[in-house]
Amino acid sequence: MARNGKGEILVVDDEPNAVKVLSAILTEEGYRVYESLDVASATSIINRENVDLVITDLKMPGRDGMDFFGFIRENKHDIPVIFLTAYGTVDSAVSAMLGGAFYYFIKPPDYVKLKDIISRAIRQKCMRQEIEMIEKTPGDAGEKNGLLGNTVEIRRIKDTIETIKDSSSTVLISGETGTGKELISRALHFCSKRKDTPFIAVNCAAIPKELIEAELFGCEKGAFTGAHARRIGKFEEASNGTIFLDEIGELDLGVQAKILRVLQEREIERLGSNRKIKVHCRVISSTNRDLKNEVKEGRFREDLFYRINVIEIKVPPLRERKEDIPLLASIFAREFSEKEQKKVGLPEKVMELLKEYHWPGNVRQLMNIIERAVVLTKSDSIALCDLPEEFHPLGKALEETHTVTRRGTLRDIELQAIKEALEKCDGNKSKAARMLGISRKAFYKRLNDAKHA
Ligand SMILES: Nc1ncnc2c1ncn2[C@@H]1O[C@H](COP(=O)(O)OP(=O)(O)OP(=O)(O)O)[C@@H](O)[C@H]1O
Ligand SMILES: [Mg+2]
Fold this sequence. Notes:
The protein has helices spanning 16-28, 39-48, 65-75, 90-98, 111-136, 141-144, 152-164, 181-190, 209-217, 234-237, 253-265, 291-296, 302-308, 325-340, 348-356, 362-376, 392-424, 429-436, 440-452, and strands at residues 8-12, 32-36, 53-57, 81-85, 103-106, 171-174, 199-203, 218-219, 231-232, 242-246, 267-269, 276-278, 282-287, 311-314. It has 453 residues and is an alpha/beta fold.
């Protein structure tokens, strides 16, 4: 992780002025910069300091940039490397890219673009480190129960869980479907002092209206047609533990009134009995509706709303915490890979696509899509075609933007290299072609392409 300002960058170039200029620009940007004029000192810096990124010249006397790159690949493989190359070394730069370099620029680089690439490289490195860190460290209450995420929004929720887990105040968890409401309610219970007591979840939306009261409060034998035996209700089952009223907004007003009474008096009566039974349980409710609005519309009792809502946890939809998507996606990919006995990775391109999508089904949908892709893929990394069809148009659109920028970049590089070679060789095309290490024919073709670009 970038600890010092925006990050720590090592600049290596045998040309002192080049180091000075770049160092000044990057320091101004808020980076901490280490300067080095040769690979030997660069190696000792990288071994000693917490370097987040290396920018190195390719051609240097003695051990060159390629050598240094080899060392980094072997010993510090998570540090991204950006090459700065002179016109004559484009070929080596291309092979460096193929070997895993983050980017390369022809000197002098376009500094605006360089700054953008630097911040992307450091962001990616930090993200990878964060994922590793989260996987290694035993987490807090939320994480121990599988609540993943590192955005401010999720961290705030994890903090709240830590703070309120042992209290007995009611909690209302609201959020869209699949955002993790049930996961949070479980974390609240299983990390609290109540963890060895029952956690009883009641899906208020799934129980038929006629049965809900018996389900919640229990009934005596013969209390109504079909009540063949005495039944213990969910409130009683949850005694001393937690009752989770999932989708409480779906309950009708009659049942709402009864729940209000239970919350006020802390006692229930089974259907068909007058005996009052004390219940001590924490009540956690969840809703994907806007309950305040339901109150306004007369569909939810205002007094019950205030009763169940002493502490509110609002879970934001995934599209409002996109920075968590790479972390979630890669952990899901690893988990499903293990389950499938495969080793399937998520390339940057797919990750970008996942971040662009609007996720109406939130984390549940992301999880399902990764599972499906891991199962379907025939290779060791997920491709666009392994994702459901609704992703394809978005994928194509992103691909096109990439191709356009990539084409632009390569063309720029070629054009710049050809121009500089011609200048050096006083316009002699054969010489310039030799300098670039390509045939005369290839040189003419590129020159021609570049002219008509
Ligand atoms: N932050 C998260 N980290 C890891 N897994 C998560 C996270 N949020 C949700 N999930 C997973 O997504 C799935 C859906 O979560 P959960 O059932 O808690 O959502 P919900 O908000 O209760 O959804 P619904 O409203 O549809 O009932 C679960 O498998 C859960 O483990
Ligand atoms: Mg749920």
